[in-house]
Amino acid sequence: MLNNICPVCGLEFDDEYPWGEDGKTSSFDICPCCGVTWGYEDCQPIARLNFRKQWIDNGMTWLNPDKKTKNYNPLLQVSRVIEFLEEKLIENKGI
Ligand SMILES: [Zn+2]
After folding, report:
1. According to DSSP H, which parts of the chain are helical?
2. Which of 15, 17, 25, 75 has the most Cβ atoms closer than 10 angstroms to its Cβ?
């Protein structure tokens, strides 16, 4: 399960679950990296995609620079979203 990553920017958390541990109950917290409000601006796939595109176009900066991870690599980070999406597809199709 990859429910400990931001589904927009791929930021990984140690013990935070943007959409709950079950991946279905959003926390309505704000991602310190991309700034999305989970459960609000990312509740539809198209909204999630648009938010991600906007974040990328704006230089993949941190909303809260104090929380910036060591060795921040935005492309590596956002690539986790692909893994997240694949896992969701597998879950939904019961593969
Ligand atoms: Zn994020």
Report:
1. 45-57, 74-93
2. 17
- Cα separation, 67 vs 64, in Å, equals 6
Beta bridge partners of 12: 5
Quote the ligand 1 centre to 95 CA distance (angstroms).
27
81's tokens? 């979203």
Calculate the CA 18 to chain-centre distance.
8
CA 32 to centroid of ligand 1, rounded, Å: 7
In a domain, 12, yes or no: yes
Domains held by the chain: number: 1
Decide if 92 is inside a domain. no
Compute the distance from residue 83 Cα to the ligand 1 centre, in Å: 15
- Structural contact between residues 84 and 48, judged by C-beta atoms closer than 8 angstroms: no
Q: Which pLDDT tens digit goes with each residue over 11-68?
A: 999 999 999 998 889 999 999 999 999 999 998 889 999 999 999 999 999 999 999 9
